[in-house]
């Protein structure tokens, strides 16, 4: 398998995981490789900070402040789904929208939360007041977090 075919697989995986920003960067890299501009690719240092899943950490990484994915992973939702992962997209949205991991856990587990169907067959939305947490029920992955007031 050539490099661009490998990138195609990674782009599909990122798209399936709703990591839209990552998919977009990979598409640009693929375009550069196809155009022969591989010398334009920036090299990275292996000592750059990475989160516990091996992904490049943003400032502070996935464990910055109140946005610690480990507080969410392993919890069981109202529908009985065990959370196995929190997407980078969801972590970014939590940070951007100032939704703490504790708030996400409460939304997923509080009996006062409502569970509604998501946009796709495999997602459910746990809703508590203004907070919405979208969960892929098959993968046990948190797709995104929404604050209806922000």
How many β-strands, per DSSP?
Answer: 5
| Strand coverage percent | 15-25%
C-alpha geometry: elongated
> Radius of gyration, rounded?
17 Å
List SSEs in N-to-C order: HHEHHEEEE
- How many angstroms separate the termini? 44 Å
Instruction: Count every helix, treating DSSP H or I runs of 4 or more residues as helices.
Output: 4
Strand order of the largest sheet: 1-5-4-3-2
Which spans have pLDDT < 50 for at least 5 consecutive residues?
A: 58-65
Mean of residue pLDDT?
A: 81
Largest sheet: 5 strands, mixed
Helix content: 25-40%
- Secondary structure class reads alpha+beta
Give a description of the structure.
It contains 4 helices and 5 strands; from the N terminus they run ααβααββββ. It is α+β, with helices and mostly antiparallel strands and 150 residues long. Strands 1-5-4-3-2 form a 5-stranded mixed β-sheet. A hairpin with a 2-residue loop joins β3 (123-128) and β4 (131-136). The chain is elongated.
What is this entry, summarized?
The chain is an alpha+beta fold and 150 residues long. The chain has four helices and five strands.
């Amino acid at each position: 398998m050539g490099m661009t075919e490998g990138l195609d697989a990674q782009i599909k995986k990122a798209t399936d995981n709703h990591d839209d920003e990552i998919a977009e960067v990979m598409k640009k890299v693929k375009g550069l490789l196809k155009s022969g501009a591989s010398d334009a690719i920036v090299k990275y240092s292996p000592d750059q900070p990475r989160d516990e899943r091996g992904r490049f950490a943003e400032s502070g990484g996935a464990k910055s402040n109140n946005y610690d994915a480990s507080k969410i992973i392993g919890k069981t939702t109202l529908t009985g789904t065990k959370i196995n992962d929190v997407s980078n997209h969801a972590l970014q949205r939590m940070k951007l929208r100032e939704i703490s991991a504790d708030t996400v856990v409460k939304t997923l587990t509080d009996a006062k939360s409502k569970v509604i169907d998501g946009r796709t067959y495999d997602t459910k939305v746990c809703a508590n007041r203004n907070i919405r947490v979208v969960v892929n029920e098959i993968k046990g992955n948190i797709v995104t977090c929404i604050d209806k007031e922000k």
